[in-house]
Amino acid sequence: MRLLIIADTHVPARARTLPAEVWAEAEAADVVVHAGDWIELALLDELERRSKRVIGVYGNNDGPDLRARLPEVARADLDGLRLAVVHETGQAKGREARCAKEYPDTDVLVFGHSHIPWDTETGTGLRLLNPGSPTDRRRQPHHTYLTAVVDGGRLTEVELHTVTRGAS
Q1: Does the pTM exceed 0.90?
Q2: If you placed Cys at 107, which of 82, 103, 121, 144 could pair as Cys (CB 3.0 to 4.6 Å)?
């Protein structure tokens, strides 16, 4: 099962739409995971139209229309992999211990908010992933997103991608 993992797209505030390569990944993926800060409902509608499955949450910049359709925390079983998605996890210091305590029955926690790519594992085996942002790099050198594969209840082939053409 192929995953596209994105967050902090901020469409249309930071870009009119997602970069073409991200749309191509969304169309090829079995599941698109979005960790919040969509900004407009139109992006959610378009992702749902062009993707097989979307698992998303709202972020701090998302208004009532997105909050009405998306949860603060999403959970899914992906072929035995226990996935949770949330927008914010708090400050980087102490993140692993805090998330291990808050998400004890989770294998992978996807989060956003910082626009900073993150890939660590807690002492309990919880994997923490932040894809950065494909449209708003802030102080990061590149726009980024993640792809991964779920195989036999395990997350494999996690790859951080740099957007090769800027968001439009």
Answers
A1: yes
A2: 82
Question: Residue 96: which H helix or E strand, with range?
Answer: helix 95-102
Q: What's the pLDDT tens digit per position in 62-97?
A: 999 999 999 999 999 999 999 999 999 999 999 999
pLDDT tens string 97-148: 999 999 999 999 999 999 999 999 999 999 999 999 999 988 889 999 999 9
Token code pair at residue 46: 């378009």
> Residue 16 has which token pair?
């009119």
**Angle, in degrees to the nearest 10, between helices 20-28 and 41-50:** 50
Q: Is 61 exposed, middle or buried (0-12, 13-18, 19+ CB in 10 A)?
A: middle
**What is the rounded distance in angstroms from the CA atom of residue 61 to the CA atom of residue 166?**
22
What are the angstrom distances between the C-alpha of 61 and each of 9, 24, 106, 136?
A: 11, 26, 26, 13
